[in-house]
Amino acid sequence: MLITFLKVVTFIKSGSKKKKITKADRLKQIQEEEEKRQKEEEEARVKYEKEEMERLEMQRIENEKLQKLEAKWKHYIQCDGSPDPSIAQEINTFITLWKEETNETLEEVIEKSKLVLNQASTLADLDSGNMEKVIRDESVTLYIWANLKKNPRHRSIRFSETQTGFEIPRILATSDIALRLLHTHYDHVTPLSPVLTPSQENISIITDFVKEEVKSVPTAVSKDLQEEKKQQENESNSVHEEETKAEGQGDVEEQMCPVQEEPETTKYEMEMKLISETVLAAQELLLENACEKPNFFEENEVDLCQFTTLGGVYHLDILELPPQCKPMKGWMIVEILKEGLQKYTYPPETAEDLEAENAFPPIEVTLEVHENVIFFENPMVARWDAEGKHWKTDGISNVSYKPEERLITFNLETFCPVTLIQDAHINMPYQSWELRPLDVNKVLLTVTTVFTELQIQIKENLCMLASIKVNNKNHSTILEEKWMTPVSFIIALKKAGLNIFPTGHSHLYVVINYKHPLVEVKAYRQMALLSSAFAFCWSKWNTACDSKKAIFQVREHLLKEEPTQNPNWTLLMFSGDRAQSLKINESSDAFSEVLKEETEFHSTLYHMVKDFASQEAMRAVRRPSCQFVDSVCHMLLSTRLLSFS
Q1: What SS3 state is found at 371?
Q2: Cβ-defined contacts of 424-427 (< 8 Å, 24+)
Q3: Confidence grade of residue 115 (pLDDT, cut at 50, 70, 90)
Q4: 466 three-state secondary structure
Q5: Are 415 and 317 in contact (CB under 8 A)?
Q6: Cβ neighbours of residue 543 under 8 Å, at least 6 residues apart?
Q7: Which residue did the predictor score with more confidence, 299 or 450?
Q8: Which of 130, 360, 430, 458 would staple 645 via disulfide (CB 3.0–4.6 Å)?
Q9: pLDDT tens, 28-74?
């Protein structure tokens, strides 16, 4: 600026004829030049910034494209089946495929429920604005509800196409929460049932018996060998006196052959006797009754010897709603919590009792009872106590059951696993029973109780539920026409609520007609042996005799015979080592142990029925397979018909 000013002064001096520039004009000119320069600099700066912004934007776009490609490639490489939250079609496909999947583990279902809750905002219902999903499997049903709108008036929750739902209080309706109901159709929470421990006296008796029998086998064999040798020596001496030496040696060789075989036969017979007696003693232990009830130390604790859980377990949880996905410039942004889903404590642990009753009322829960479970009375609701590791009935109120709709409603103070329970002995004692042959290696066992009539077919080593009547009406169940092994069959019936299988504690909860275990075991074994040609049924006189005797009816039942309305039954009394035919019958006025005319005592049922049975029936008794006889005996031992009817 100084140089410019000097030039102007020099020009004025050199040109005396030129007009003289005033100081004001000179300052104005300088100002204009300065403004022009600043304007040029500003334009240059703006242009540079614009170009720089365009360059950065292009670089950002390129980086975003690269990141998207990398994310898609990583998602493709992982191949874990998780959907892209930015694409609604993938989310819908994910939910649809999940519904079709079966045999998933509990951990897989929980993990997928976390994924669904993280993307709840993209799955919101158009009407309510909240998210709800029901995902079913063969053994698991998952219900998820996310409170996205937090509308205080939306307190009634009903999952689509079901009657399952909740009535939540106002404080939950306005909170960031999610409700999760996981219904496992099986019970993986309840501890194993208490196992009846046999008395040490019985165990020692069986142990001593086995030891004595084991020792007696070689002793008996050695004695037999000595007798055989003595007999052999005597015979060989007589042969030497009467015959020549060559002929005597030939006789000795002929006699040595059976001597070597007979000890093996004797040993085999002794071993089989040992096995038979040991099995008999073990079966007798199975029918032993407990002396006292198990100890329960807490109030409202469920006695698992008296009650049984049915229909699986309902896991109820209130969760804190996780951060939801937010769209931003083509991206879906979501905050991932390292600790995963967090449980929402309701009511708060710090709330006082009086305040909790008003501000934190119970939650009303409505559940659908599993379709494959039968309740003969209104079911009870129990909650799982995680600290005590048992079921309890406190904290649950206002229980109501609709049997036709199979819905149960109750109030729950706090969310936790719940289950439905029923008296395990509701079908005991039995009113009557019958066992009759249907075909070779096939019988039908009918058990009638107060509420139901069960018909069970047994063939070879399999059992099947042929039919069931509830309150004199036919009832359909998925167990019908399905053959299973006896153990699997018993477990399946118990899970369906059809428990006709007593335990060692059952006599403590129901009035029974106690019979000595040894009498029962021998009766069931011999009935199973004769079941292919003879029918057995209940007798009212079984309650009139003492515990060391059992009374039941028997008759010959060949397969070709036509069924008759008034079959001719024979009344037998069996004490384990003696069977006899009684003079009285079912229509007699008084009980009497007088022997039937022209009959005798026998040691077994087999010899007893030979007195009046046909030769064809006795031949049919020898036809059944060992597996069939064992299966029939197993079912009779499991139902204990003589003691529980």
Answers
A1: coil
A2: 424/305, 424/306, 424/307, 424/308, 424/499, 424/506, 424/509, 425/306, 425/499, 425/502, 425/506, 425/509, 425/510, 426/376, 426/377, 426/451, 426/499, 427/376, 427/451, 427/452, 427/498, 427/499, 427/500
A3: low
A4: strand
A5: yes
A6: 513
A7: 450
A8: 430
A9: 888 888 888 888 888 888 888 888 888 888 888 888 777 767 766 66
What's the pTM?
Answer: 0.72
Per DSSP (E only), the strands in 491-609 are 534-537, 550-556, 570-574, 579-581
User: Sheet harboring 307-320: ordered strands across?
Assistant: 131-136, 140-146, 177-184, 307-320, 418-423, 380-385, 390-392
- For 500, the token pair is 């006709």
Query: In this structure, what are the phi and psi dihedrals at residue 163, rounded to the nearest 5 degrees?
Result: -105, 0
Q: How far apart are CA 56 and CA 89, in angstroms?
A: 33
Say how far apart CA 89 and CA 108 lie, in whole Å. 22
Alpha helix positions (H), 428-580 = 486-495, 517-530
Which residue carries 């307190």 as its tokens? 155
- The enclosing H or E element of 626 equals helix 626-639
Question: Residue 275's pLDDT is what?
Answer: 76
Q: In this predicted structure, what is the pLDDT of residue 289?
A: 77
Dihedral sign, Cα of residue 496, residue 498, residue 504, residue 505: positive
How does pLDDT run across 229-272, given as a tens digit for each residue? 555 555 445 444 444 444 444 443 444 444 444 567 777 777 77
